[in-house]
Design brief:
Helix content: 25-40%
Number of strands: 5
CATH superfamily of the largest domain: K homology (KH) domain
Strand content: 25-35%
Shape: elongated
Mean pLDDT: 92
Structural class: alpha+beta
Low-confidence stretches: none
Order of helices and strands: EEEHHEEHH
Largest sheet: 3 strands, antiparallel
Radius of gyration: 18 Å
CATH class of the largest domain: Alpha Beta
Number of helices: 4
Length: 148
Amino acid sequence: MAKEILRKANAVWEGNLRNGEGTINTESKALLEKPYSFATRFENQPGTNPEELIAAAHAACFSMAFASTLKKNGYEPERIETNSVCTLAPKTGGGFEITKMQLSVRGQVAEIDEDTFEEIAELADAGCPVSNLLRCGLEIELEVELLE
């Protein structure tokens, strides 16, 4: 049986929402002191934001799941390109919520027809861990500590 894999990230935010700023780090250092702010999230200024990172995670996971599902079904994928769009929309009463994820996938796979390609993409989506998380949600454990 495979063992559980833990992936870690850290974000620090200083100041209030509109005028503050933060940094994001990942354990692998793929993101290291990557800045983000109100402007990068809500005003399309250069820099990253949580929704962009969710979209990137979804595109990456789906591409891998699709390649795996193609192979399991007897096809040899040459290239899978997944573009992902995460929609952040205003909520009634204030605030924002993620309302939709859109995946657009193009692939090069020898000896496969369009219908089979689409069927296997749907199987891959059903097995993609990030797709399933976004579709169903998950338990969130929250630990808090107030610093003085």
